[in-house]
Design goal:
CATH class of one domain: Mainly Alpha
Radius of gyration: 18 Å
Helix content: 40-55%
Order of helices and strands: HHHHEEHEEHEEHEEHEE
Strand content: 15-25%
Number of strands: 10
Shape: globular
CATH topology of one domain: Arc Repressor Mutant, subunit A
Low-confidence stretches: none
CATH superfamily of one domain: Integrase, N-terminal zinc-binding domain
Number of helices: 8
């Protein structure tokens, strides 16, 4: 991890999300709607919905917007029919990128994603071309200064798969996707609140960028993120400040 700070990258990412709060609300609402449609409108019995609602609350999304998104998913309100689709490709220097989308028009979405890749120096690949470079898992990041020994004990007891510390002092807890909420709740009960928590596709390796390549890579990621149908972007790229 030498040469860059995981914590700095997390703060940078959160800052960019805050700048785009309106777009963030729209994307979270889509996820809530799809989660409610698939597993029902009660977050207590629908883990995916609960994760989405917690993400909405963390972004300060108004409760009425959350409730409306749930009702669209359960059919109480009329809503758009979304399909889930994932695109894979390569960025600057061959960095791996996975793009998760929710769309009501696959033809439009694939054209927009392909255009963003090609316009900004990337290449959209075939299904599975980079998926092996990522691990599906629950991930929680805790701020530097957290009591590492106490957190590790609580995490392992709760069923976490791994606990690691970074050179910058941040601590990462990984879980199996199905155990994410259980571990998160146990850590909260023990007094530990993560700065970042989600079920994600964690890159197994990293491509660190600086200078002009960092600028180019950020433009590509921004172009993808700004597409209305794009929900999440996972990448091996680390952009140095």
């Amino acid at each position: 991890m030498a040469g860059h700070s995981k914590w700095a990258n997390i703060q940078h990412r959160k800052g960019r999300q805050d700048e785009k709060r309106g777009a963030t609300f729209s994307k979270i609402a889509k996820e809530i709607t799809v989660a409610a449609k698939m597993g029902g409108g009660d977050a207590a019995f629908n883990p995916r919905l609960r994760v989405a609602v917690e993400k909405a609350k963390a972004a300060n999304m108004p409760k009425d917007k959350i409730d409306t998104a749930i009702k669209k998913g359960t059919g109480e309100l009329e809503g758009v029919e979304y399909i889930e689709i994932r695109y894979e490709g390569y960025g600057i220097g061959g960095a791996a990128i996975m793009v998760d989308c929710l769309t009501d028009n696959k033809t439009r979405t694939v054209a927009e994603v392909r255009h963003a890749f090609s316009k900004h120096g990337g290449n959209m690949g075939t299904d599975g071309c980079v998926a092996f470079q990522f691990k599906h898992c629950g991930q929680m990041i805790f701020a530097p200064g957290t009591d590492e020994a106490a957190l590790m004990d609580a995490a392992i007891e709760a069923g976490a798969e791994d606990v690691t510390s970074d050179e910058d002092g941040s601590i990462e807890v990984l879980t199996a996707p199905a155990d994410f909420l259980t571990v998160k709740d146990a850590l909260a009960a023990a007094g530990f609140t993560p700065e970042l928590a989600d079920v994600t596709m964690k890159p197994e390796g990293e491509n660190v960028f600086s200078g002009d390549d960092a600028i180019k890579m950020q433009k590509l990621l921004d172009a993808l993120e700004n597409l209305d149908d794009v929900q999440e972007i996972y990448t091996t790229a680390i952009i140095e400040e």
